[in-house]
């Protein structure tokens, strides 16, 4: 069974969900393999760039990988605002753009560095009472106003071209670049819309290492897909490793708590292996005794 990750380049022709469906179909058609597949961190339909894909048992580990920082290159076009915050939506407002100096743009970038509460877009995958925001918005139903804390770690002004400004941002998982564009525009005394978005990195997945769907298809057809599958443990390298003896490994796999001699006071999650080198899953701290750990995920690979 295939277990691991792919670093896929998403273009504008498909949504994130369509990319997943395409890969699933490739493996099914070429290998006859019905593999569970998921993606880590949705990219907007109009966006391009890194889209990490989880295969097989790796889909159960997404939460420990997808919450890392992201880096984007984006274009903000000033003077108009849309329903969706990007070019896909209907125009809500058009304004004359005031004179804005490069120094003012750089100052706004500096002002936005750090944590702030960002408004969740109406056209987003956030849920309320089981319905996604974009479903409510498309049905012309009221979308609740919701804010979430994000962290803008770096925001660099790259260049300008008439009414378009280009930036590169390093930000926390879950940051909405469409909203960031609107926030930058407001601070510049106008309105604006995101007109281009490229995800350059998603945690340890980098643009330079990504592969197109066409290249992946060719590798699958030649039975060489293993060349681009990233092992599970490479993506979990930030989590400490503990090797259990046979007795404790058996207990862990059975869902029981285990005693671990070494102190891991600064960690909440451990990678668990047995002495043969088999990855057994992840353990989390048990309440009470600090050396007692319980299974979080039992995933034998």
UniProtKB/TrEMBL annotation:
Coiled-coil positions = none
- InterPro entries found in the cross-reference section: PsdUridine_synth_cat_dom_sf (IPR020103), PsdUridine_synth_N (IPR002501), tRNA_psdUridine_synth_TruB (IPR014780), tRNA_sdUridine_synth_fam1_C (IPR015240), TruB_C (IPR032819)
Q: Give UniProt keywords alphabetically.
A: Isomerase, tRNA processing
Q: Where is the Pseudouridine synthase II N-terminal domain?
A: 34-177
List, alphabetically, the Gene3D superfamilies matched.
Pseudouridine synthase (3.30.2350.10)
Q: Which reactions is this enzyme annotated as catalysing?
A: uridine(55) in tRNA = pseudouridine(55) in tRNA
| Enzyme Commission no | 5.4.99.25
- Note whether tRNA processing occurs among the keywords: yes
**Stretches assigned to the tRNA pseudouridylate synthase B C-terminal domain:** 178-236
Give the Gene Ontology MF terms in alphabetical order: RNA binding; tRNA pseudouridine(55) synthase activity
Which enzyme type, at the first EC level? isomerase
Q: Which residues form the tRNA pseudouridine synthase II TruB subfamily 1 C-terminal domain?
A: 240-286
List the active-site residues. Answer: 44
The record's annotation in PANTHER family points to: PSEUDOURIDYLATE SYNTHASE TRUB1, TRNA-PSEUDOURIDINE SYNTHASE
- Record protein name field: tRNA pseudouridine synthase B
Which species is this UniProt entry from? Thermodesulfobium acidiphilum
